[in-house]
């Protein structure tokens, strides 16, 4: 409906402005040493239209066009050769066939999710083992390398949902 259209239009315009501002900063006489800029459109489109839709392909092309525009501005300003550009993605998209609800699997635990990753706040010992056992019944496994600094690692655990699950 109208909410989805507004969501997508906002992402499009926000990305255009964001890359225009990044270009202005990067080409300024005393520009910063580091600029972080996000292009939200592909993620927004894939959440709404699906990862394999023609609109998703268009959204990736739109992101490419924005990056190309940034490169053109750097070249025009004579800054292309002394600028390093790093492109990264926060996550991919794929078909989801199963939804797991941590609040139902782990009632009483503090959890946070991002796609197929689940973060669980649990004290050491029995409570952590209980969480891992309950999650394993749904095919959810601990991440091989826990992503937490040593000072908080005893209180947190990260898990990965099976393929096709969120």
Q: How is this fold's topology laid out?
A:
Elements: H1 2-27, H2 41-49, H3 54-76, H4 102-105, E1 110-114, E2 117-121, H5 126-136, E3 141-142, E4 156-160
Antiparallel strand pairs: 1-2, 2-4, 3-4
Concise synopsis of the structure shown:
The chain is 44% helix and 10% strand. With 166 residues, it is of the alpha+beta class. The longest helix is centred in the first third of the chain and has 26 residues, at 2-27.
Can you describe this structure?
The chain has 166 residues and is α+β, with helices and mostly antiparallel strands. Helix content is 44%, strand content 10%. The chain has a 4-stranded antiparallel sheet, covered by helices on one side. Helix 1 runs antiparallel to helix 2 (41-49) and helix 1 (2-27) runs parallel beside helix 3 (54-76). It starts with a helix and ends in a 6-residue tail after the last strand.
Structure characteristics:
single chain, 5 helices, 4-stranded antiparallel sheet, 4 strands, 166 residues, alpha+beta
- Mean of residue pLDDT values: 87
Radius of gyration from the CA trace? Answer: 21 Å
Largest sheet: 4 strands, antiparallel
Which spans have pLDDT < 50 for at least 5 consecutive residues?
none
Helix count from the secondary structure assignment: 5
Helix content: 40-55%
N-C termini distance: 24 Å
The percentage of residues in β strands lies in: 5-15%
Helix/strand class:
alpha+beta
The ordered H/E elements are: HHHHEEHEE
Query: Total strand count, please?
Result: 4
**Strands of the largest sheet, in order across it?**
1-2-4-3
Shape: extended
- Multimer state: single chain
